[in-house]
Amino acid sequence: MDIEHVRSRFAKHFDGATGAVYASPGRINLIGEHTDYNGGFVFPGAVDKGMIAEIRPNGTDQVKAYSIDLKDYVEFGLNEEDAPRASWARYIFGVCREMIKRGVDVKGFDTAFSGDVPLGAGMSSSAALESTYAFALNELFGDNKIDKFELAKVGQATEHNYCGVNCGIMDQFASIFGKAGSLIRLDCRSLEYEYFPFNPEGYRLVLLDSVVKHELASSAYNKRRQSCESAVAAIQKKHAHVEFLRDCTMEMLEEAKADISAEDYMRAEYVIEEIQRVLDVCDALEKGDYETVGQKMYETHHGMSKLYEVSCEELDFLNDCAKECGVTGSRVMGGGFGGCTINLVKDELYDTSLKKHRKLSKLNSAKARKCTTL
């Protein structure tokens, strides 16, 4: 992230003024997709790419925001009826509103921001943006500082109430709590978490961008969540203690099969299996068993593609390439419908596997692929 670039753009658009600079990282998720809103476990970590913003209170009741990357400028007020039309500005507006709801006396401010998290790539650029502004507004306007757990919930509530995505807590939590050299196993029901050192010797994580941009609010993301809730409601008829799919076994799901649609059954089957995969991967990492980690990643991709149906032709192609190249593990990362695959690659295979990926891509009629190494 280029702080000087943000500062120069801020000064240009706001008459040479200076403000305070804040930043938050994007994230990867080694395994555990669509488990967060089902009360399960996820296994994310922060990355060295994120969002950075310069902010200065302006003494008015108006927010004046400039997106450096989009070259777009928006002004909006702080009342509910002042919501801006620009989708990127709604993230900032939503954070303002959620902080106000929590008693923070947010006033008008000038801001410019930029990021190097690829937009729509499944690395949670939106959560990084929300976390940046939640932390900043807490520092600038909060007399009684909100704790980090609540700041993560501010970002989640912004997605729910102002951006149309009923997401879980993982992305915002990883952005706020992530630390270098570690992954976080997060229990999304209790918010208990544990850091796992992650410095795999002999392996590296590689993200391959499908160049297909996902739009979760306009996709089937919310429908997937509804399917999970329908399955839980059916299971509760015989198992009243069940609150989330996290509480369910495949035997319970089988009992309820006649009461739910085939589609809802598939969605629930994937989630129940994925929650267990997170725990299996944690156990494998503690043993240094990266072959099992890779196997579980491939299982996750299969489940997301065939059961949860959130993959796409390009992501499946990249996953097939990974298998052909001998990559230890590969899967779609993030909510799906586009974005990246995350790949666990042995060091000695790194150069040859990337070359083979590129060769296969040229032979395939799909869009050209870009490679990003983390």
TrEMBL record:
One of its GO terms (biological process) is galactose metabolic process. One of its GO terms (molecular function) is metal ion binding. Keywords: ATP-binding, Carbohydrate metabolism, Galactose metabolism, Kinase, Magnesium, Metal-binding, Nucleotide-binding, Transferase. PROSITE patterns: GALACTOKINASE (PS00106), GHMP_KINASES_ATP (PS00627). The lineage of its organism: Bacteria, Pseudomonadati, Bacteroidota, Bacteroidia, Bacteroidales. Pfam families: GalKase_gal_bdg, GHMP_kinases_C, GHMP_kinases_N. InterPro entries: Galactokinase, Galactokinase_CS, GalKase_N, GHMP_kinase_C_dom, GHMP_kinase_C_sf, GHMP_kinase_N_dom, GHMP_knse_ATP-bd_CS, Mevalonate/galactokinase. This is Galactokinase.
